[in-house]
Structures are given as C-alpha cells and as structure tokens.
Write a structure and sequence with these properties.
globular; FAD/NAD(P)-binding domain; Flavocytochrome C3, Chain A, domain 1
C-alpha cells in the first residue's frame, strides 16, 4: 500500500500543470504523478499546431475568440465556461512561458498563426512541435519540486470507491467518493493500491478505438472508462473529432502522421487528386472552415470519386518559410517520397480528439467526490459539438489552475479511507492465447471505423452495438478468469469507450457538429445533451 495526498493519473499538460500549481503553493502536500508510458509520452506531445490565446489586442479580442469557439461548438458549448477559458487563457500561457516554454517569434514579436474556424491570427506555436515543447518545459519545471514524485510505467486499473468496501453503488447515488486507485507496476506486473485524499484524472482521449488515428498508442480512454465503471457521469461521447488531414500512407502506420491545420492556415489548399479545389462547395471559409465541416467534405469527395485520399497543395508557398515553420512535416513527407514543395501531399481524415468524456464543472470537479478531471478526458462545456483548433492545450492549462486552487482549499478537510482491501487475484490463471486480446482489438477498430465514423446511420449503429456487446462479454470473461495485463486493461477500456460512443450516437437523433447521421440530417430545435 502507498499513500499520497494527491494522486494525478496522467502526465500531459493538464496533469503536470496541476502538479506544479499545487507544489508552488503547498509544499507540504505529497503529490504523486503516474503515467503508464515513459514520462513525456502523452497526447500533449503530439499536438503540432499550437495553443490559441488572444495575444494581439489591437487586432484580436476575447469576444472574437469566444464567438469563434461558440460557432465551432455548434450550439452545445457552455458560454460561461467558454468565456472563463478564453479570458483566463493568456495568463496561463504566460505562466508556461515563464516556466521555460519557447514559442516562435518574428522580428521580436510572437509569430501568431491561424487555423480552421479562427477569425484572427492567435495561435502561438513552436515550429510544428508545440506540444512537444510544452511537455519538455513542464517536465523540467516538475523536477524542481521535491514534493512531486513522477512514476512512469504505472498503469491505473480502477478507481477506489465504496464499491470496494462492499457497498452497492449505482448512478443514482450522489455520495460516490474516490479514495485512490488500484495500479499495476508494468516492470513486474505487481498490482497495488495507492490511497489518496484526492485523485486527478488527466488521461487524455481514446483515439485508438479507430483504425486511423493521430493519437499515440497510449490513447485508450482509461480515465473515461474508469469513471464509467465507478458510476460517474459521462457526457457527449458521440462527438469524436476527425482531423481532416492526416498523411495518407498506404503502407499503414499507427498513429497516423498529422499534417497540422496550421499548414492550411499558412496557405495550403485542399484539392482532389486531379488538382481541383472543392471546399467552395461546402463552406465560404474554404480550407479553413471548422474541422467537422472539412472532414465531412473530404469524406464526401472521397466517396463520390471512389478515391482513397484527397491532396493538400503547398507548391505555391515560400519554400524557406514553409521549412522553417514545418520542419517535421516537411521531413516526414520526404521520408515517404513526397516533396511538399513539388508534390501534392495525400491526406485523409483520422480520429483526433474526443469532445465528450467525464462531465466536470468549471473547477474540474466530477460527479464523484474527491475526484477531479482535466483535459481531453473531460466534457467541460468548452468544445460543445466540435472543438475549435488549438483550444485543447488552452483547456488543459486553465483546468489545471482551477483544479489546483480548489484542492489547496479543500484537502485539509479530507481524510484517508481505512479498510480498502488489497487487490485479489485468486482464481485467475495466465492467459493461454494472447491472440484473444489482439484479435478483439482489431475487431473493435474495424467495427468503429466501418459503422461509427464520420457519417453514421441507425443501421450501422445498431450493427456496431450488437458486435460491441459480444466483444464486451468476451473481454469481461477474460478479465474475470485470467491474470491481468496492460494489454487486457487497455482492450477493456477501449471496448467501453467504443460502446459509449456508439450508444451516445444512437441517442442523438439529429445531426450536429461532429455527429452526422443520414437518418436525421438536420438539427433539432431542442438541445438534447445526452448524459450517462
């Protein structure tokens, strides 16, 4: 058994910023950050474009950024939350600059970019590696605090609640309380419990439920699945954002390589394979329309023409400036035989971001007492039915500030819960065939990609649910009878997330934002926000 005042699960922008903010003001608190991968491997690391913040008040304003966010969210944003995130965001960005984060400058001023859905240049970036740079700075800052212990290769299995004390817990309970988590040390597969006064989930999204995704292998929706099993509230899981432009690679790779939206902001133009522009048929903002519109447009053009991809034309752009802004993208394209200055870049939509997740309030509080959540694993009200580009890193920073403040104020009144049992593995045996796990993972990806993708309908969703329920039963049987492994944990969580996305999509009988169904192609007059 291990005890810590604060247990933070996840070491991306939301998790590490929360730890730093706590340690700065409360050096007396013990703070444990766990990550199932190596430190530095997170969804944050893969964020290419940048962080959106109102920086130049001569041309930009909070009201413009708020309006852009609400427009992208297609009627489902919480305007109060949007206003909070947008107005507090620049101060949070200044803090990470003070902590050592570098953003590109031009002639002594920050070189602000523009991405889809933004009416002004407001994206701060570090080349095309912004997430990597923010992650680097946060890791270095974390090392300066003795009260923060960062442990990698530690996998969170389940949240500790009254359920583990023998009480019956349902979603109707309003007193569900979190006391820590069961975790596995991946170095020896030893399962232990970490008791905590407060737990913070910063576990990212679940992109790996799809065949094509820009998310890293660790994006298996662990936090969302753990909260669902703990009977916490989950919201808006039908809104899965597909990034319009992942690099098309017929050889396949996981994750798909992202061609940042900033490339289109820089002047890249979407075209069909024969070089004809097409976005004018779908939106007046052309290639810089919000992501849901662009992704559906690309999907439609591919289906109409029977082709596997469309192209991004950058040949007319200044070569030196392009390479300076996008060195990683340029070199990646070269590695597969594409010179972005001479050739079209083949692109396809790929799963990129979850706008739904664990329902939280403005302070990151979940429906489970003493459990907070921040970043992509949450449904905060900022993104609504579709996330505005580069608002995700902003959300993680603002969430972390609120979560840390509330924990500092409330933790002294919280006690550890006695009597939580150790993990019981009696009656289980080693799995005889790993293929049972790997094949189920492949089946899940095929089901979600074929039936619950960019365009949906009732027949596809019903078929997906039937197959997902079978996978769920098979996986739960494995979980009950075999010795546990990280691969089995992730499969279990992925199937839970796939099931949630499909169930939420079945309940929303309209097309809105990222959820488009051919059975209900129009928006409804009422705003039916689905919560489980």
């Amino acid at each position: 058994m291990e005890r810590t005042d604060v247990l933070i699960i996840g070491a991306g922008v939301a998790g590490l910023t929360t730890a730093i903010k706590l340690a700065e003001r409360r050096s007396d608190l013990s703070i444990t950050v766990i990550t199932k991968a190596k430190i530095g491997e997170s969804n944050t690391k893969y964020a290419q474009g940048g962080v959106a913040a109102v920086w130049d008040h001569q041309t930009d304003s909070y009201e413009k950024h708020i309006a852009d966010t609400l427009d992208a969210g297609d009627g489902l944003c919480d305007e109060e939350i949007v206003r909070m995130m947008i107005t507090e965001g620049p101060a949070r960005v200044k803090e990470i600059i003070e902590w050592g984060t570098r953003f590109d400058k031009h002639n002594g001023r920050y070189d602000l970019g523009r991405e889809g859905g933004h009416s002004e240049d407001r994206i701060l970036h570090y080349k095309d590696l912004t997430g990597w740079e923010i992650q680097r700075a946060l890791i270095e800052k974390t090392k300066s605090f003795e009260s923060i212990s960062v442990r990698d290769q530690i996998y969170a299995i389940d949240l500790l609640t009254q359920h583990h004390l023998g009480y019956s817990v349902t979603r109707a309970n309003d007193d569900i309380t979190c006391y820590g988590a069961y975790v596995m040390d991946k170095s020896n597969n030893d399962i232990q419990k970490i008791e905590a006064k407060v737990v913070v989930l910063a576990t990212g999204g679940a992109g790996q439920i799809y065949r094509s995704t820009t998310n890293p292998l660790i994006a298996t929706g662990d936090g969302i699945a753990m909260v669902y099993r703990a009977k916490g509230r989950i919201e808006n899981m039908e809104f899965v954002q597909f990034h319009p432009t992942a690099l098309y690679n017929p050889a396949g790779e996981n994750p798909d390589f992202l061609i940042s939206e900033a490339v289109r902001g820089f002047g890249g133009i979407l075209k069909t394979r024969d070089g004809k522009e097409f976005m004018h048929k779908y939106d007046d903002r052309l290639s810089l329309a919000p992501r849901d519109i662009v992704a559906r447009a690309i999907d439609n053009e591919m289906k109409i023409r029977g082709e596997d991809y469309v192209v991004l034309d950058c040949q007319h752009l200044d070569k030196d400036a392009f390479i300076r802004h996008f060195p990683t993208i340029y070199n990646k394209c070269l590695s597969v035989g594409i010179d972005a200055m001479k050739d079209f870049i083949p692109v396809v939509p790929a799963c990129h971001y979850f706008c739904g997740g664990v329902k939280v309030d403005q302070d990151g509080k979940t429906s489970v007492h003493h459990l907070f959540a921040g970043g992509e694993c949450t449904s905060s009200g900022l993104h609504g039915a579709n996330r505005l580009a580069s608002n995700s890193l902003l959300e993680g920073l603002v969430h972390a500030d609120h979560i840390a403040r509330v924990i500092r104020e409330e933790i002294d009144d919280i006690e550890y819960r006695e009597g939580i049992p150790d993990w019981d593995a009696m009656g289980t045996t080693d799995p005889k065939e790993m293929v049972l796990i790997t094949q189920s993972w492949k089946e899940l990806k095929e089901i979600m990609s074929s039936y619950v993708g960019i365009v949906r309908n009732n027949v596809r969703l019903k078929r997906a649910l039937t197959r997902l329920n079978l996978l769920y039963e098979e996986t739960e049987d494995l979980y009950r009878t075999t010795t546990l492994s990280p691969q089995l944990f992730e499969l279990r969580n992925l199937i839970t997330n796939g099931n949630l996305v499909t169930r939420f999509a079945s309940m929303r009988r309209e097309s809105r934002g990222l959820h488009f169904t051919t059975d209900f192609p129009d928006k409804q007059d009422f705003l039916d926000v689905t919560v489980l």
